[in-house]
Amino acid sequence: MKLPLDDAEVTYIAKFFNRGEADRIYSALLEELSWHQGDVYVFGKWHKTPRLQAWHGDESLTYRYSGKLLTAEPWSKTLHEIRLRLRDHGFEPNAVLANQYRDGNDKMGWHSDDEPELGENPIILSLSFGVTRDFDLRHKKTKETYRLELEHGSLLVMAGRTQNFWKHQLPQRKSVTGTRINLTFRTIFR
Ligand SMILES: O=C(O)CCC(=O)C(=O)O
Fold it and tell me: Which of 4, 62, 115, 162 is the most exposed place for a label (fewest CB within 10 A)?
């Protein structure tokens, strides 16, 4: 399903992985990835990120994120498998940022994935596993907003000029008790 957004190319595929595959991937990722709580620099102060994260990719790829330089951990078995599946669909990412929202208190604030190393029109391949969470997009100029639910096994593709014109966030949901894992596969230009 292509979302009806101006100045954007956003496509949502609900069952990119079937239920059995998604269950297996979710459990494997919890075990395999080098999860840690990162640091984020906001209004002149360092804070712990309100989620766990992991950065994996091709050898020695670095990525500047929230003012920190991260060096990629190697691909894990399951990440490699997912990458091959994305390749079957014509995508060639070389890195992935993984986010683990332990429960509904964990979140990610408004931002665009527009770091220079992602190039001019980045393709962000965002996979969701675990509990369903709301995801918001907001146009930078018109302030138009769009909300969708990201489900277990789904793929959201943000391409074209999306990052230039829109921000996105994963809002806090205090009533949510389950865990969600998000993988955003990207291509980093060195
Ligand atoms: O968890 C999500 O769906 C959003 C992740 C995100 O915005 C990011 O990694 O830049």
Answer: 4
| 56, 79 contact by CB (below 8 A) | yes
In a domain? residue 162: yes
Q: Which domain holds residue 18?
A: 9-34+54-186
Chain Cα centroid distance, residue 133: 13
CATH code where residue 84 lies: 2.60.120.590
Structural domain total, the chain = 1
Q: Atom 9, ligand 1: which residue's CA is nearest?
A: 184
| Structural domain includes residue 103 | yes
- pLDDT tens-digit readout, 29-74: 999 999 999 888 888 888 899 999 999 999 888 887 767 788 899 9
Q: Which residues surround ligand 1 with Cβ inside 6 Å?
A: 97, 99, 108, 113, 126, 135, 150, 168, 170, 182, 184
User: What distance in Å separates the CA atoms of residue 102 and residue 79, rounded to the nearest whole number?
Assistant: 20
